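can u do me a favor
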């Protein structure tokens, strides 16, 4: 009974509907493939990141797997740069950028001129 009804519906389908179903199906497959690649690349990137601690990696991977699109985009936009990781305390404490030593009028660091140290 059910098989006959499905066959009957398939035989009555308009050619435009059949074509549209194939196009939408192909588009959905492409979107799903893109999402899977994005999530896999975010997970691998989080695993090999040297600045994030083991617990931080676990948190990011769980976040990416729980919210695939938002989590993967958040990892590449915020997490990989490390600003949020430092704020949350899940980085290894290595700053990506060093702060230059202040040499000047209000500093106690000696200024270096012509290879010699001069008092500030």
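np, heres the sequence
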């Amino acid at each position: 009974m059910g098989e006959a009804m499905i066959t009957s519906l398939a035989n009555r389908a308009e050619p435009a509907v059949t074509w549209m179903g194939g196009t939408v199906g192909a588009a959905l497959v492409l979107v799903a493939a893109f999402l899977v690649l994005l999530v896999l690349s975010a997970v691998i990137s989080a695993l090999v990141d040297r600045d994030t601690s083991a617990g931080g990696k676990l948190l990011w991977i769980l976040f990416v797997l729980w919210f695939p699109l938002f989590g993967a985009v958040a990892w590449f936009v915020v997490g990989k740069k490390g600003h949020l990781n430092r704020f949350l305390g899940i980085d290894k404490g290595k700053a990506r950028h060093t702060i230059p030593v202040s040499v000047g009028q209000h500093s106690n660091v000696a200024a270096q001129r012509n290879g010699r140290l001069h008092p500030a």
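The mean pLDDT is 75. hope that helps!!
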